């Protein structure tokens, strides 16, 4: 197994400064970054910074691309019920289960605590989304009833009231 990067052992505030500096400097100027880190009391070579920076840049590019693709996907295929989110959570849970099944505990370099926290967070997110969707549906039904009452008192025909109710509930074609 390769040696642990000296960058991951930096204190949080120094690591955050480094990450921001890399982004602000467009992932260049590694010699100056090495000198700045040296001035902060840490010794990290220019080549170590470059390896870390390249990996960070690639990760950032992948996240940006995924974000852009997700925006296009959401615009092209609206998903008010959160089906895409549910599918993604299930896919990640399935992959985590596969990893755990193949895991050789003696040769494990996977942080099981992190994996457990990830699974817990996914489960909580799924539950939260479902509760939110149920709450929105309940409030929509209540709003439709309120509008129906007001519309009838205002003298609208039953057909007009039902058309409004259908639009509110999202079932009108």
What does the secondary structure layout of this molecule look like, with pairings?
Blueprint: H1 12-24, H2 30-39, H3 46-76, H4 83-102, H5 112-153, H6 158-169
Structure characterization notes:
This protein is mainly α and 173 residues long. It has a domain at 1-77. Helices cover 74% and strands 0% of the residues. The protein has helices spanning 12-24, 30-39, 46-76, 83-102, 112-153, 158-169. Helix 2 (30-39) crosses helix 3, helix 4 packs antiparallel against helix 5 and helix 5 packs antiparallel against helix 6.
Output the helix-strand order: HHHHHH
Please give the count of helices: 6
The whole-number mean of residue pLDDT values reads: 81
Uncertain stretches of 5 or more adjacent residues = none
Strand content: under 5%
Radius of gyration from CA coordinates? 26 Å
Concise overview:
This protein has about 170 residues and is an all-alpha fold. The protein has six helices and no strands.
Annotation keywords:
6 helices; 173 residues; elongated; mainly alpha
């Amino acid at each position: 197994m390769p040696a642990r990067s000296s960058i991951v052992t930096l204190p949080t505030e120094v690591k955050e400064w480094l990450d921001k500096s890399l982004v602000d400097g467009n992932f260049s100027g590694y010699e100056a970054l090495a000198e700045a880190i040296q001035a902060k009391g840490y010794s990290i070579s220019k080549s170590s910074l470059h390896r870390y920076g390249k990996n960070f840049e690639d990760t950032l590019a992948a996240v940006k691309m995924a974000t852009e693709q997700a925006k296009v996907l959401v615009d092209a295929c609206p998903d008010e019920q959160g089906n895409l989110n549910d599918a993604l959570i299930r896919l990640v849970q399935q992959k985590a289960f596969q990893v755990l099944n193949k895991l050789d505990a003696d040769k494990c370099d996977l942080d099981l605590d992190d994996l457990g926290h990830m699974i817990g967070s996914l489960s909580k997110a799924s539950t939260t989304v479902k509760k939110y969707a149920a709450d929105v549906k309940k409030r929509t039904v209540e709003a439709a009833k309120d509008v129906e009452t007001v519309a009838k008192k205002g003298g609208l025909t039953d057909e007009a009231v039902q058309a409004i109710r259908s639009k509110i509930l999202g079932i009108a074609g």
